[in-house]
Design brief:
CATH class of the largest domain: Alpha Beta
Number of domains: 2
Shape: elongated
Radius of gyration: 19 Å
Distance between the termini: 8 Å
Largest sheet: 5 strands, mixed
Strand order of the largest sheet: 2-1-3-12-4
CATH architecture of the largest domain: 3-Layer(aba) Sandwich
Number of strands: 12
Helix content: 25-40%
CATH topology of the largest domain: D-Maltodextrin-Binding Protein, domain 2
Strand content: 15-25%
Number of helices: 9
Amino acid sequence: MTSEQPLQIAYSPCPNDTFVFDALAHGRVPGAPALDVTFADIDITNGMAERGEFDVLKVSYAVLPYVLGEYALLPCGGALGRGCGPLVLTREAGTDLAGRTVAVPSEKSTAYLLFRLWAADTVAGGVGEIVVMPFHEIMPAVRDGKVDAGLVIHEARFTYQNYGLHKLADMGEHWEDTTASAHEANDAMDEEHAKSELAEPTIDGLDIFLLFGDQTLVMAENSVKDMQVGSVGIFEAVLRRS
């Protein structure tokens, strides 16, 4: 990768991703490298990272253990928060999911990892078939009876009522209720990976900045070992190690 070549970056078209990368993608950050942007569903970007196909990718935290040999975790670009976790939606309120078919956005997504923990605690006998589909197709599939329930992410938690669906459970609430410290638990795990896996490699000549109003956040420094993994959430940006 040279300074003349644009960075190959892939992230989902969901609102938080397009907002976070807007200034970079449209050349509004002085001195930042040009970007060649590809929009793709999170399950696809997770797979791209596993195959090492792009320079920068937005991926699920759950896929990090599979890609840290090829990519470095960036300290910015993540999506996190409380009260905004993935939801399990059904057509009928209070549906028992034992043996039922559930649509999920990715089997290596953080949402699915949280779903598995929730189901193990609450669904006697376990759920039935798991069907992977693009996140924007899940609510219509539940509404139309193609699956019994759907695990949704992104803005779906604010729009599912428009499909006549019911919230069966909130994966974020379950995680916070059972761990009491959702972000800190994940942070410790990721810092351990960062210290053991990313101690030596460097990313030559990379200084990327994200602009949020009047604030400028450093997205990556020249040395991976100086990165601070201080934010933990559902999604994170990773950079190919050079």
